[in-house]
């Protein structure tokens, strides 16, 4: 993997209730690695913050503070355990409240009057990485696994949140058999994450197609000549973008 010595601002959001968890240990290692490379890192530990996940009314000082963190970040890391094939409720609530109208969606381009989304938005150009722990075996979250590939499982986050708001979604960093790791296995996973973060700025993101007239019609469906014969999630991938070698 290529590495880069330049640095920027990073926001690391953790959604795990236990301070002595595997997730917390990986977060600590990841944040320390970024800082050692010259990154300025801001953390949002949602459970430690007592984050209110329920959207009752828009806005609030806590929402504005998280939005400010996002706006200055070049890299956004969302870290969480995979619970029932999705994010913990506290993280889903963070997205629900922070990515509100005028920030995450309903962002209008004043030049064209068009709503900016799917490859364009207020957060365009930022890189977004999901660091995910799962209890099942590695094969279960592969393309032929019983759960489907981790990219398909996380489609609502990768495509529906990251890509929708203009962020460049990176391939998820998946840690499987999270409840059964010994010290040696944890060390290897920690080192793998640290090594990946060293090259995160030059890593090839997931190639999703942008929402434009070249690819989608006015019903927001792919034109017939785009990915002919493909159905579902795979049809929305840009085949010109190579798959990275992360391991």
UniProtKB/TrEMBL annotation:
<dbReference type="InterPro" id="IPR003680">
    <property type="entry name" value="Flavodoxin_fold"/>
</dbReference>
<dbReference type="InterPro" id="IPR029039">
    <property type="entry name" value="Flavoprotein-like_sf"/>
</dbReference>
<keyword id="KW-0560">Oxidoreductase</keyword>
<dbReference type="Pfam" id="PF02525">
    <property type="entry name" value="Flavodoxin_2"/>
</dbReference>
<dbReference type="GO" id="GO:0005829">
    <property type="term" value="C:cytosol"/>
</dbReference>
<feature type="domain" description="Flavodoxin-like fold">
    <location>
        <begin position="10"/>
        <end position="179"/>
    </location>
</feature>
<protein>
    <submittedName>
        <fullName>NAD(P)H dehydrogenase (Quinone)</fullName>
    </submittedName>
</protein>
<dbReference type="GO" id="GO:0003955">
    <property type="term" value="F:NAD(P)H dehydrogenase (quinone) activity"/>
</dbReference>
<comment type="similarity">
    <text>Belongs to the NAD(P)H dehydrogenase (quinone) family.</text>
</comment>
<dbReference type="InterPro" id="IPR051545">
    <property type="entry name" value="NAD(P)H_dehydrogenase_qn"/>
</dbReference>
């Amino acid at each position: 993997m290529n590495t880069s010595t330049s640095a920027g601002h990073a926001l690391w959001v953790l959604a795990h209730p236990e301070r002595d968890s595997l997730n917390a240990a990986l977060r600590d290692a990841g944040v320390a690695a970024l800082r050692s490379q010259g990154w300025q890192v801001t953390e949002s530990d949602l459970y430690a913050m007592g984050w209110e996940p329920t959207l009752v009314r828009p806005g609030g000082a806590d929402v504005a503070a998280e939005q400010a963190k996002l706006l200055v970040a070049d890299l956004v890391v969302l870290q969480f355990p995979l619970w029932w094939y999705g994010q913990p409720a506290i993280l889903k609530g963070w997205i629900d409240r922070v990515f509100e109208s005028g920030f995450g969606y309903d962002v209008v381009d004043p030049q064209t009057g068009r709503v900016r989304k799917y490859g364009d938005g207020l957060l365009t150009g930022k890189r977004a990485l999901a660091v995910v722990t799962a209890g099942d075996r590695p094969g279960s979250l592969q393309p032929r696994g019983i759960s489907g590939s981790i990219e398909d499982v996380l489609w609502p986050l990768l495509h529906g949140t990251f890509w929708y708001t203009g962020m460049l979604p990176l391939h998820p960093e998946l840690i499987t058999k999270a409840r059964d790791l010994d010290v040696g296995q944890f060390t290897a996973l920690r080192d793998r994450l640290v090594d990946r973060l060293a090259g995160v700025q030059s890593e090839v993101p997931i190639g999703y197609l942008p929402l434009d007239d070249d690819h989608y019609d006015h019903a927001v469906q792919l034109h017939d000549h785009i990915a002919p014969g493909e159905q579902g999630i795979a049809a929305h991938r840009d085949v010109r973008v190579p798959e990275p070698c992360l391991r």
